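tl;dr need the bound structure. longer version: we got a ligand (heme C) that a collaborator sent over and nobodys looked at where it sits. i said id run it. heres the input, straight from their email, havent touched it
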Amino acid sequence: MALSSVWRGALAVVMLLSPWAAAAQSVQDRLKTCLACHGESGQSTVPLTPSLGGQPAFFLNIQIFMFREGIRKVPLMNEMTRGISNNDLKALSEAIAKLAPPPPPSDTPDAKRMEAARTLSEMNRCNVCHGGTYAGGENVPRLAGQREDYLLHTLREYKANTRRGYDAAMQDVLHAVDDKQLVDLAYFLARQK
Ligand code: HEC
Ligand code: HEC
């Protein structure tokens, strides 16, 4: 009796493992391609290419879905995600979310500029949605330690309505924020831990 339950257990493991192992393989291969641009350890060193480490899995899931469906229009990323299955998309998001978040740049931040931008951020409630430490959560992205060039680029795109979000939150928020303020916010957010 003990033996047969062991066998049943072993059989269940084999049946679970084979398809799962195949899927894991393809996700791992895909992940390598992704991280060639986005940074092997989750921290990007490529201009205008975001770090992905520490991003909430659900946020990644939504963005990869929007790339695949062509809702967020970036030809390169639309191509990279073409035909990805929902299961692989989910597994990929979960694997990426586990990578370490990017550390902020090692320069000494300009204290006055940081303080002014903190006030600006709090006035616009950036910290309310993105979290007190800007680590994000659920559908809201992590901003802390993100590349400054990417932050500025993507904020300008929301403002110009050329980046479609999953909802209109960012377009609404940036309505009253001018370009100089976007520059300061990107500086500030890139230097959060
Ligand atoms: C050849 C370089 C390259 C490769 C390979 C690549 N990406 Fe990207 N990815 C980019 C760039 C550049 C952007 C920024 C697009 C923009 O300007 O909005 C981006 C954006 C993203 C974003 C949005 C992140 C954010 O914070 O808004 C996600 C998620 C993402 N990529 C995931 C992936 C995944 C998953 C793969 C592999 C299937 C992948 N990328 C492969 C260059 C690349
Ligand atoms: C009402 C909630 C809310 C507020 C307030 C808010 N955000 Fe966001 N933010 C979001 C959501 C949700 C997203 C993802 C939207 C999408 O699907 O593109 C986002 C995306 C972003 C991104 C894109 C990051 C990436 O990796 O792609 C940046 C940068 C950003 N927000 C900065 C800010 C700044 C700066 C402020 C304050 C001026 C702010 N946010 C205020 C909810 C909010």
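gonna send this back to them w/ a short note. Residues 24-37+48-100 form a domain with the Cytochrome Bc1 Complex; Chain D, domain 2 fold (CATH 1.10.760.10).
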